[in-house]
Amino acid sequence: MTACVPGSAPTSSTQPGSQIKYGGALTIVPGPYGRFQRFFNPFAADNSTLSGTKGMIYETLLFFNQETGQVKPWLATSFSWSSDLKTLTFQLRRGVEWSDGQPFTSDDVVFTLNLLHRFPALDLHSIWTTLQAVTNPDPYRVVITFKQPSFPEEWYIGGQTYIVPRHIWEHVKDPVHEANPNPVGTGPFILKSFDPTLYILERNPHYWQPGKPYISELRYPAYVSNASADLLLAQGSIDWTGLFSSNLQSFVARDPTHNRYWLPPIAVVMLYLNTARYPFNLLPVRQAISLAIDREGLSKEGENGYEPPPHPTGIVLPAYRSFLAPQYRSLSFQVDRARAIRLLEGAGFTRGSDGIFVDREGRRLAFSMEVVSGWTDWEKDCALMAQDLAAIGISVTVKALPLNTYVSDLQLGSFESAISWTNSGPSPYYLYDALLDSANTAPIGKSAPSNWERWSDPTTDQLLAQYAHSTDPTVQQQALTGLQRIMVEQLPSIPLLYSVNWYEYTTARFVGWPDEHNPYAVPSPYSYPDNEQVALTLHHV
Question: Which SUPFAM superfamilies match (predicted)?
Fold first, then answer.
């Protein structure tokens, strides 16, 4: 069952006949992350490692285009499944070198995958819950066997696992906390210089795609807030960013010839309620919170109309409309605070003297809501939700935290509620799997890869397994319909907004950008490995 035919190095999407001009330094601001730490560990969560680590420096075996569904060969030239979906074989590309000149072989792939087994904290996609063994019959072939049919693993292993050089990482004693300050990868760029306020990547002279990249340097300056970076974007000092901007039309109007943006919905912004903690383990509390939130207000006031309210199933529309169960096609979120209050009263809560609900033991219905300091749109969203919940007798304290603290709190479960992102993939299964699979969570105090709300439910796990064990579209859709029902009826996590690909750029200095007419990659500079596709295609004006 071959899924990807052998191929040569992927070609540029630059229009035929166009003149390629080499050189230039591209300035990128993925987000307002504050001062940088020299941390290039490709196994860390996306917002813990420096942008460019994944994609620009380290690469995957395959490239999945989530906009078009296309799968391209990358470090692997082909892959194939056995008929029982228990064996996945990759044929690797010959002639690839690490940036230190050492050859890339199947030893590196086997070592990387086994490293995730030896250090489970690195296994962010929980691939070793189904993976049984990894072997390399020859230097350019890798054979992966699974405990059961595991079709979705081609995305996690082929498209989301970044391969590291064995000859370097086999000497790392603690890869979980390794800063990897001098990264060696197969990607198109290498580290040139580092400063807490600016780091620079330069062209990799050993890169395996002849003649690429066209750009000489990638520059990543540090900013502490959307507002400070937004100012430089308006002034034309930034070429490419993934910032929330309060007025994109104004940005375009400053230079309508060159300034552009494209905001396709790719995932869902969630309100994570820690279901391992009281009172979020109570369904009526989760339902009341959801009913009180004015998502239209979040969209208009918090996101300036750029991020619309999501579908209650968590299905990303319009991209995945074909997966939406018929019974939910007309469903939408509604604000119903009277019903929210009735639900709380029915669960035994009563109003205290200060207007805040208390339970039978006198515990106030009050909690904190975490957000990253400087992420101004989400800070506004949290403030709006606090007002909405106060209206039904729930007290919320918004906690704006440094990014590293915020991510740690989510992973370790040391939070009450938090606004945050979800993972995406080639179908809705991948969002549900990351969000709901009990294999992706952990007890409070231990690191959870992605199921931060600590949802653990046998029915959910059975539905996820049903999808994973089949390639039959009917069987897979039955599983997705069941997962949609859980999202709608159980509210394991509360959808707030569609997460669009914040993507603003200027064609004044570089051309070849993806857009709605040429969606060769998901364009945000913090989407991996799509950022690599963009950096390989762009060239100087």
Answer: Periplasmic binding protein-like II
